[in-house]
Amino acid sequence: MLISTKGRYALRVMAEIAADETGEYVPLAKIAEDQNISMKYLESIVVLLSKAGLLDGKRGKNGGYRLNRKASEYTVAEILEITEGGLAPVTCLEGSRNLCARANTCITLPVWEGLNRVIKDYLESITLEDIEKQKAAFNIEI
To answer: Which residues form the domain of 122?
Structure first.
């Protein structure tokens, strides 16, 4: 599994918005500059996140984006699943049902199912709040 730039940037964007403790809308231009992401690419990312209900957007003066929930309620898995279309390490595990004709006889399927569980469990265990705490602990600029 390879996380695309869209997924990595989405996580950085969400972390930056979460770091703004004012609750105000964070301007897209500020995020683009801080994260060194083109406005066009950034717009495509925030549209996905907004449509999924993760962000609230506001146009005009004092516009931008803000979280719809507390940072502790967003997991890395949720953000990446939206931007990546899923986290499955193999195609046969991408849907809710394994449609592979070999699923009943595949001797390697348990390996992929186990890896899928490990990936999901790990990414579901990390929240935006955890990322913010890590940033503070290591004095990292987002």
So the answer is: 5-138
